């Protein structure tokens, strides 16, 4: 069975840094499908500025432009904090032998030991770590050990087992972040060329990220 990619995030909003990473990995890893999984209530950070319904609309608009990209709403529907381990357990139950590739940026990977039941994650999925500007792979500590045990450069290894390997892969570095985009929009600037036009239109039409007084 062909591998599927799972790309979770707050996506507040989704931008070309996310989409280019997803696109490059979708092709490089020969994934059957890439699932964008918006977090409902992320456990490790402030609540998203934009509500789940509008983040979902932006993700759907972005995913509609690329065959193979799908939006998985399960974390928005689930009550309580959005734990990745819960999502992976559900996906694993749905497809017991299918390779699952959890895609994370290097910044997110460096925070993995703070995730709920993080030791379970490599048992449920492969980890695909995309290089981002300013972060390097750890050489020691629990993540250094994990990499020493499980790292592979070979895409075939991700297809040969349902879970358990770690693949660190450079992607085109785009210095775009949702934080910077929100600040730019709040300041009254146009986010054009940093995210898809369809996403920009939703931001404009719904007024999310605008200062409440100007909505
Ligand atoms: P924020 O600025 O609000 O923290 P973000 O832009 O980092 O948001 P998230 O939704 O938190 O976006 O990130 C989801 C995933 O996308 C994470 O694994 C993160 O590492 C990755 N990611 C975010 N921006 C980029 C980028 N420019 N290039 C590659 N990966 C990215």
Bound molecules: adenosine-5'-triphosphate
Strand content: 5-15%
In DSSP terms, counting alpha (H) and pi (I) runs of 4 or more, how many helices?
Answer: 10
| Poorly predicted regions | none
Order of helices and strands: EHEHEHHEHHEHHEHH
- State the total count of DSSP E strands: 6
Q: Classify the helix fraction into a percent range.
A: 25-40%
Strand order of the largest sheet: 3-2-1-4-5-6
State the major sheet.
6 strands, parallel
Q: Structural class per helix/strand content?
A: alpha/beta
Q: Which descriptor suits the 3D outline?
A: globular
Mean pLDDT over all positions: 93
Measured between the Cα atoms of the first and last residue, the distance is 48 Å
Write the layout of secondary structure elements.
Elements: E1 4-9, H1 16-28, E2 33-38, H2 52-63, E3 69-71, H3 74-77, H4 84-94, E4 100-105, H5 106-110, H6 121-124, E5 126-130, H7 141-150, H8 155-160, E6 166-169, H9 178-186, H10 197-206
Parallel strand pairs: 1-2, 1-4, 2-3, 4-5, 5-6
Helix pairs in contact: 2-10
The protein binds adenosine-5'-triphosphate.
Residues 9-12, 17-18, 21, 104-105, 107-108, 130, 132, 174, 176-179 line the site of adenosine-5'-triphosphate.
